[in-house]
Every structure is written in C-alpha cells, then in structure tokens.
Amino acid sequence: MESQTPKIVVITPVKNEAWILDRFLSVTSEFADYIIIADQNSTDSSQAICKKYPKVILIENKSEKFNEAERQLLLIQTARDLISEHKIILALDADEILAANAMKTQSWQAMLKAKPGTVLFFEKPDLFVTTHQCIRTGILTPLGYVDDGAEHQPQSIHSVRIPVPEYATRLHIHDIKILHYAVTRLEAHASKIRMYSVIENVLGVGNAIARRSRYTSKQDYLKLGKVETAPKEWFTGWEEKEIDMHTVIKQKYYSYDFEVLHYFHKYGLHRFWMEDIWKFDWEACRQYAKSQGMLDIPDYKITKQSKFLNLIADISAKSYAQTRAILSLLQLV
C-alpha cells in the first residue's frame, strides 16, 4: 500500500463562505482527487458554488448548533466511507488556500511517500489586511493525516482537525504554505472573535474574565509576528490558471454577527454582559437583520452595556492577563 500514490482528499466544513469559496475550490481542484464539503445550513450561495465543481462531494450537516467535534467526525467518516484507497486527508477551512508553488517542493513528494499513520504539519501564513503582505509565526499546524483508520478524538471547539494518535509519525513540512485569508478582512475577523466569545459562554468554556482577555475587542495582530511581503510565487501559478487570488469581499455585517443575534434571542442579553462584544452596534445590526426578514433574532431593542460595567470588566480582564503572565514567568524560574 505504501508504494501506491495516495489519493488526496480535502475535507472542509462550510457555513456561509461564498466570499471565498470559488477561490478555494478552484485551487483545491488543481491538486485534490476529492473535496468533501459539509455545509451547515448556509443561507448564502455556498451550496450553489460547490455544485459547479466536479470534484466536490457535497454533504449536509443539518445540526443547528456549533460543534467542531461533530462536523470533524462527519467529514472524516465520509472520507473513509467513500474513498477506500490509500489516501491523505487534508483538513482545510475555506479560507485556507494552498500556495501555488506547493506541488513543486521536495516536501510535496515526501508527503506523497509518507506511510499511513503520519501526521502532516504545515505553516499557515496570515495574509494581513491585503494579500500582498503577511504575518508569519513559524508555527506548524497539524492539518493532514496519511490515513490508517485511527480514531479521531476531537473537542467541541478549537479542536485539532485530524487524528493524532500517540504512535503517529510527525512530518513537519516547512516549504509548503497554506495561505490563511482570515485577517484580510479585519472587520469580519473581529465579528468572528465576538461570536467565539459568545459560543464559549454557551459551551461553558473557561470563565468570563478569561474570555474577555482572550477575545478582546482590541486585538493586537502584530504580537503574532512582523509584517512581511507575501512572496509572489505563492500566487503566480494559480493566477496563470486565471484564478483570482487577490479580491477580498467585505460587507457591512457578517454571518457571525447574525449568529450572535440568534444566541441573544435564545439566551437573552444578560448572559453575555461580561463578554467584550459591546463596542459593536448590535441594535443597528438587529434592525438590518429584521429588514432582511431574518428569523430567531431579538424582537426588542438591544441597548448598549453600561460604561461602568464595561470599565470594571476591562480592569478585571487586564488583571487576569497580568496574573497569568506572572505565573508563567514564575514557572520558568
């Protein structure tokens, strides 16, 4: 089996990703044998876009709740049920695009020759504000698995996407880049951060002060690393195939904002008063959602959090972050 060229199976969860889905599927169709998309109740054109691409296998994730574990298990099991051959499973989000020079690297061949039971680690440079610059952390993320049927043990949020059994070989790939487009849209990323804060509240992850520190509305992206020019070779090969690699679609409101409105409707506002989400004009967003005929949103005016409560919460979050930093330093002594 190890001598056979593996099939490349990309598995991707989707919910309202029309802004980038054509780019993702155009690029991914160039190197993958199969693309399995689990669409979770998209209300935009995501499903219609998927149906244009012959390599896409579109399945439905009809769950109404946020649960990374469920969708990862659904995708992995579908890949195993439908593709029995020797395969590499690559777990990519729709805003993660393979760099154009990837298949010309030595690591691409090493990946294809890797034995079953190998975890593949890749660098994901963050394209920052525009596609012409990036922030690189140097961190390698487990995004691929040379499948041997190992059990996947995911978490409900912020989960590793593929099996990582204790016995697995680790292949660290430094010359293949997965281009991450999330922070080309800072407003959308801020919207997503607000949504994660609310979701973790509902899931009971951590405490409010910790979430306020982690999902602060004052994100300092430059703490991740220095801003560099994005190499042209990441894009050129795909552009030569007439794939648009640079257009970034921005909106006034994002699907993450409407998700939060749904949580407000279900749980009320008071539950979320300690989350750092109140510098956003939720009432204007609610009015827009109402004008679009959206259901399951609050039918009352959303008032802003009091400045006093916001100040107390900010001070608490700052103290929490400082305490954690001190404890970390003490552990190093």
Describe the overall structure.
36% of the residues are buried. This protein has helices at residues 18-31, 46-50, 68-82, 106-113, 186-203, 208-214, 236-239, 255-267, 282-291, 307-332; strands at residues 7-14, 34-39, 56-60, 87-91, 96-98, 118-123, 126-127, 133-135, 140-146, 169-180, 227-229. The chain is α/β, with parallel strands linked by helices and 333 residues long. It has an 8-stranded mixed sheet, with helices on both faces. A 3-stranded antiparallel sheet has the order 7-8-11, with no helix packed on it. The chain contains 10 helices and 11 strands. Helix 1 (18-31) links the parallel strand 1 (7-14) and strand 2 (34-39). Helix 5 (186-203) runs parallel beside helix 8 (255-267).
Main beta sheet strand tally, sense and closure: 8 strands, mixed
Proportion of beta-strand residues: 15-25%
Helix-strand sequence: EHEHEHEEHEEEEEHHEHHHH
Q: Uncertain runs with pLDDT below 50, 5 residues or more?
A: none
Question: How many beta-strand segments?
Answer: 11
Termini distance? 49 Å
Number of helices: 10
Mean pLDDT: 92
Radius of gyration: 21 Å
Structural class: alpha/beta
Shape, per Cα inertia axes: globular
Helix fraction, binned, reads 25-40%
Summarize the structure.
36% of the residues are buried. By secondary structure, the protein is of the alpha/beta class.
Task: Name some characteristics of this structure.
333 residues, alpha/beta, 11 strands, eight-stranded mixed β-sheet
